[in-house]
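Exam review. A common question shows you a sequence with its structure tokens and asks you to describe the fold in words. Practice with the pair below. Do the first one on your own.
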Amino acid sequence: MIGSLTLLTLLGLSSGSMYTNPVITTNTPDPGVLFDDGIYYVVSTSGDDPNPFEIHTSTNLVNWTSQGTIFNHKTPGYPAWAVSDFWAPE
């Protein structure tokens, strides 16, 4: 649902910002977007990525910064069940 993220980005244009799609250059299907205390958070489907559910943040829906992933396969304590099929995190 890249369209959902694009729609949210269009809403951000009221601030006068210009952008070029895609606003997030990594693979970001099925984005779930949350807004809290002036910051937008997006997490998306990751398929079989070994480091699933990358988190991006933005204050304007145009400029996004990666904050890492929810699961990192190199982190001690990585869940044994977290091996594949990471879909729709919301």
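Now try the second one, then compare your answer with the model answer below.
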Amino acid sequence: SVIFESPVVKPPLRSFLAQVIVMLPPPGGAAFAPGLVLRACMHTGSSRVKITRILCSIDKRTGREVAKDPDSLTVSMAGMVTFEVLDPLVAFPFSECGPLGRINFLPGGESTVEGLLSVIAVGIVKSLGE
């Protein structure tokens, strides 16, 4: 269990930036691209999120930018991605509290145990939007 005391009460998010690694292709042949709706699962809860923009793809070993504004990410690629939060969600940047900044992405709308077997991507929250 994680005990984290924050002096500030965080309101629900509207958007966030995350560094992600794509583990599996999304179901139904969809691309990991803007418009894709996923279920984001964090220590603080889960919410549906929509990819709004892929800022860049990055090299997993060095962390350096490989391509700016790619159309999509494929399996085993990493990138900086912005998400719009569709359901209320509270999150913390990984730099503030590591355990609360980790995130798993499941197929959109899934919140069952079977969904845990199909983690599409993993990542860390880099910064919070509004």
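Model answer, second protein: The radius of gyration is 14 Å. The chain has a mean pLDDT of 83. Full marks require stating both points clearly.
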